[in-house]
Amino acid sequence: MLPFIMSKYPLFSVISGTQKICLIILNQPLDKNYLHILWRKALLKACADGAANHLYEVTAGCHDSFLPDYISGDFDSITAEVKAFYADKGSKLIETADQDLTDFTKCLAVMLEKIKDQQLQVDTIVTLGGLAGRIDQIMASVETLHHALNMTQLPVLVIQGTSLAYLLRPGSHRLAVNTGLEGDWCGLIPVGGPCQTVTTGLKWNLNNQILKFGTLVSTSNSFEPTAPGKRRNLVTVTTDQPLLWTMAIQKNGE
Amino acid sequence: MDKEWVPLDCLLPSGTQKICLIILNQPLDKNYLHILWRKALLKACADGAANHLYEVTAGCHDSFLPDYISGDFDSITAEVKAFYADKGSKLIETADQDLTDFTKCLAVMLEKIKDQQLQVDTIVTLGGLAGRIDQIMASVETLHHALNMTQLPVLVIQGTSLAYLLRPGSHRLAVNTGLEGDWCGLIPVGGPCQTVTTGLKWNLISNLWIISDLWSFSVPLALGTVQRTHLETCLSRKPYAVFGP
C-alpha cells in the first residue's frame, strides 16, 4: 500500500502567488527576472559559494538591495572581493567543509536550520541555478533533491533557464499548471531507479507503467489539450519511488 | 582484463580511434566540430542540429555536409533543410514518438555502419548535455538504449563535459591525453550501482553496498563524466580502472 500523499501544489504560485519561500542561489549564471521576483518574496536568501559572484555581478548598481542572509560553502569559488563585500555588509559567511556533501546540500541544511531557529512559516524552498553547466554538477543537484526528501517535508524546487525540476516523493501529487507561466514541455525522470507511475493531465499519460532508464523515460511530454479559453486540468502523478518532475517555464515573449 | 580505453582520443588530433559523429540540437562548439568532422567516417544531424551546423560553418558550408539529417523535422528550418537536401545530404524522417531524435539518429547511424561495413571504434555525439533539463535526461536515456543497440561506445560531449555510460563489468579508462580537466564523476542514473574504482581522488571500494551520502549503488550501471579543458590535468598519470561486481 503506497503512502498516500496528497499535495495540491501550484508550482508557479512561487512566481506570481502566495507561497512563502526561501531562496538558495547556486553557482550559475543568474537570471535577473527570476532573481527580482523571488528575492522580493523570500524570507531568507542564501548563496552557495561562487553564487555570490553572480549575485554581485547581476545586482550592479543596487547591491545593497540584494544582500544575502548568508553565504555558505568551502569558499573556493567566491572571489576575495565579493566575499569581503558581503561580509562587510552583514551577510554571514558559513564555512561548510564536509567533502561528502555538495555546496547545495550544505546550503540547504543551513537554510533548514535557520528556518527552524527563526520559526519561520515557509511553503517552498526555491533554488536558482543547478540545471546547467558541468554535467556532474547538474546530477549533483538531483542528488541534493534526493537528500532533501530526508532533510525536510518542504518542497525544494530548482529553476534555471526555462527548466524547473522538482523531486516527487512516493505517493500522489496534484500539480496545478495554470499560472500562465508554464511552457509547453514536461517530463518525468526516474533518476533514482524504476518508478511505477500513474498520471493524468499529460499529453502522454502513464497507466501504471514502470518508468526506468533504458526502458521508458518520459521526456518531451506535454499537457493534455483543453478547449480554448478553458483552464488546464490538474496534472496528477502517483509514483512508488522518488520521481523527478521537470517542466518548462515560459520566458517573456515566448 | 579489459583493454585500456581513451575517452578523449576522439578530440586528440593524433588520436587513432575511428569515429562516427552525431550532432544534436544544441549550440555547436566550432573547435570540437572541426576536429571530429575531419575524423568521422559518417556525420549526421538530429533535426535542428542542422541549423547549428549551418550557422557555425558559414563561409565553408560545402566542407561540412552531413551524410544525413534525421528526425521529425519540427526544429530544422525550411531554408537549412532545403540547403542540405540540395547538396546531397539524405533527409531521413523518423516519426516514432516513443524514441528521442537522438536515439533514432543513432539507430540510423548503426544501420549505415552495418550496411557500409565500416570499422568504427566510437560514436561521438556533440550536444545533449545542456539546455532543457528533460532533454539532458533524454540524452542519458539514449545512452542506456545504446547499450542494447550496439557494442560500440557512445560518447556525449558538450561544453567542458563528457558523458559515457559504463556497461556492467570492468573498465580501464586512460585519462592522459592532456585534454582532461580536473573533475570527474560517477552517476548511477539508472539505479544503484555496486562500484569499485582506482585512480580517482576519492575511490569507491566495495564488497559493501555503499549507500553513501553522495551516491547510492547496487545495480550495475554507472555514468562516468570527465571534463575537457585547456588546463593541465591533475589526474593520475596511471590509467585507472572501474570494476563492477
UniProtKB/TrEMBL annotation, chain A:
<dbReference type="InterPro" id="IPR036759">
    <property type="entry name" value="TPK_catalytic_sf"/>
</dbReference>
<dbReference type="GO" id="GO:0004788">
    <property type="term" value="F:thiamine diphosphokinase activity"/>
</dbReference>
<dbReference type="GO" id="GO:0005829">
    <property type="term" value="C:cytosol"/>
</dbReference>
<dbReference type="GO" id="GO:0030975">
    <property type="term" value="F:thiamine binding"/>
</dbReference>
<keyword id="KW-0808">Transferase</keyword>
<comment type="subunit">
    <text>Homodimer.</text>
</comment>
<keyword id="KW-0547">Nucleotide-binding</keyword>
<feature type="domain" description="Thiamin pyrophosphokinase thiamin-binding">
    <location>
        <begin position="171"/>
        <end position="243"/>
    </location>
</feature>
<keyword id="KW-0067">ATP-binding</keyword>
<comment type="function">
    <text>Catalyzes the phosphorylation of thiamine to thiamine pyrophosphate (TPP) utilizing UTP and therefore links the biosynthesis of TPP to pyrimidines metabolism. By producing thiamine pyrophosphate, a cofactor of the mitochondrial pyruvate dehydrogenase indirectly regulates pyruvate oxidation and lipogenesis. Although it can also catalyze thiamine phosphorylation using ATP and CTP in vitro, it does so with significantly lower efficiency and without physiological relevance evidence.</text>
</comment>
<protein>
    <recommendedName>
        <fullName>Thiamine pyrophosphokinase</fullName>
        <ecNumber>2.7.6.2</ecNumber>
    </recommendedName>
</protein>
<dbReference type="Pfam" id="PF04265">
    <property type="entry name" value="TPK_B1_binding"/>
</dbReference>
<comment type="similarity">
    <text>Belongs to the thiamine pyrophosphokinase family.</text>
</comment>
<dbReference type="InterPro" id="IPR006282">
    <property type="entry name" value="Thi_PPkinase"/>
</dbReference>
<dbReference type="GO" id="GO:0016301">
    <property type="term" value="F:kinase activity"/>
</dbReference>
<comment type="pathway">
    <text>Cofactor biosynthesis; thiamine diphosphate biosynthesis; thiamine diphosphate from thiamine: step 1/1.</text>
</comment>
<dbReference type="GO" id="GO:0005524">
    <property type="term" value="F:ATP binding"/>
</dbReference>
<dbReference type="InterPro" id="IPR016966">
    <property type="entry name" value="Thiamin_pyrophosphokinase_euk"/>
</dbReference>
<dbReference type="Pfam" id="PF04263">
    <property type="entry name" value="TPK_catalytic"/>
</dbReference>
<dbReference type="InterPro" id="IPR007373">
    <property type="entry name" value="Thiamin_PyroPKinase_B1-bd"/>
</dbReference>
<dbReference type="GO" id="GO:0006772">
    <property type="term" value="P:thiamine metabolic process"/>
</dbReference>
<dbReference type="GO" id="GO:0009229">
    <property type="term" value="P:thiamine diphosphate biosynthetic process"/>
</dbReference>
From TrEMBL, chain B:
<dbReference type="InterPro" id="IPR007371">
    <property type="entry name" value="TPK_catalytic"/>
</dbReference>
<dbReference type="Pfam" id="PF04263">
    <property type="entry name" value="TPK_catalytic"/>
</dbReference>
<dbReference type="Pfam" id="PF04265">
    <property type="entry name" value="TPK_B1_binding"/>
</dbReference>
<dbReference type="GO" id="GO:0004788">
    <property type="term" value="F:thiamine diphosphokinase activity"/>
</dbReference>
<dbReference type="InterPro" id="IPR007373">
    <property type="entry name" value="Thiamin_PyroPKinase_B1-bd"/>
</dbReference>
<dbReference type="GO" id="GO:0016301">
    <property type="term" value="F:kinase activity"/>
</dbReference>
<dbReference type="GO" id="GO:0005524">
    <property type="term" value="F:ATP binding"/>
</dbReference>
<feature type="domain" description="Thiamin pyrophosphokinase catalytic">
    <location>
        <begin position="34"/>
        <end position="151"/>
    </location>
</feature>
<dbReference type="GO" id="GO:0030975">
    <property type="term" value="F:thiamine binding"/>
</dbReference>
<keyword id="KW-0808">Transferase</keyword>
<keyword id="KW-0067">ATP-binding</keyword>
<dbReference type="InterPro" id="IPR036371">
    <property type="entry name" value="TPK_B1-bd_sf"/>
</dbReference>
<dbReference type="InterPro" id="IPR006282">
    <property type="entry name" value="Thi_PPkinase"/>
</dbReference>
<keyword id="KW-0547">Nucleotide-binding</keyword>
<dbReference type="GO" id="GO:0006772">
    <property type="term" value="P:thiamine metabolic process"/>
</dbReference>
<keyword id="KW-0418">Kinase</keyword>
<dbReference type="InterPro" id="IPR036759">
    <property type="entry name" value="TPK_catalytic_sf"/>
</dbReference>
<dbReference type="GO" id="GO:0009229">
    <property type="term" value="P:thiamine diphosphate biosynthetic process"/>
</dbReference>
<feature type="domain" description="Thiamin pyrophosphokinase thiamin-binding">
    <location>
        <begin position="170"/>
        <end position="205"/>
    </location>
</feature>
<protein>
    <submittedName>
        <fullName>Thiamin pyrophosphokinase 1</fullName>
    </submittedName>
</protein>
